[in-house]
Design a protein that fits this description.
Elements (H helix, E strand, L loop, with lengths): L8 H20 L15 H5 L1 H4 L2 E6 L5 E4 L2 E5 L12 E6 L5 E5 L2 E3 L1 E4 L15 H4 L1
């Protein structure tokens, strides 16, 4: 539009309708193979997966203590899961459109709880043997 000397919205809209769009359609337009709508209805399975499809996906690694760090939060996986989870497993963390977090492994959603802070490392207690235990 700058090259055409257009510098206000009214002239811009006129240029788009009368010059640009017809020229663009002539150059790139394609005659459809079929007339009418080619959209199809979603299947039941597709409807159930719609939240997974329209979400942000990021990959995270399961730590040795079965925690996952994501966006400055720590998530503790619960003991009972729909699939076997190993430390160092790669999981998909999904942020749904409603803002909820979902952790997925092998297409199964994992149960978790949000931790209030970073988990503390456990220190090993030294093994103290008494003279009685040595005999």
């Amino acid at each position: 539009m700058r090259l055409a000397g257009i510098n206000d919205p009214i002239d811009g809209n006129t240029f788009l309708k009368e010059i640009f769009i017809p020229k663009f359609n002539k150059q790139f337009g394609v005659i459809p193979a079929k007339e009418g709508s080619v959209h199809k209805l979603l299947t039941k399975e597709e409807k159930q997966q719609i939240n997974h499809i329209f979400s942000l996906h990021e990959t995270r690694r399961v730590n040795n203590d079965f925690t996952i760090q994501f966006k400055n939060n720590w998530y503790q996986l619960t003991e009972i899961q729909p699939t076997t989870v190993y430390p160092v497993s790669l999981v998909r963390v999904e942020t749904w459109l409603d803002g909820s977090i979902h952790i997925v492994l092998k297409e199964q959603e994992l149960a978790y709880r949000l931790l209030p802070e970073k988990p503390k490392k456990r220190t090993k207690q030294p093994l103290i043997l008494t003279t009685h235990q040595l005999n």
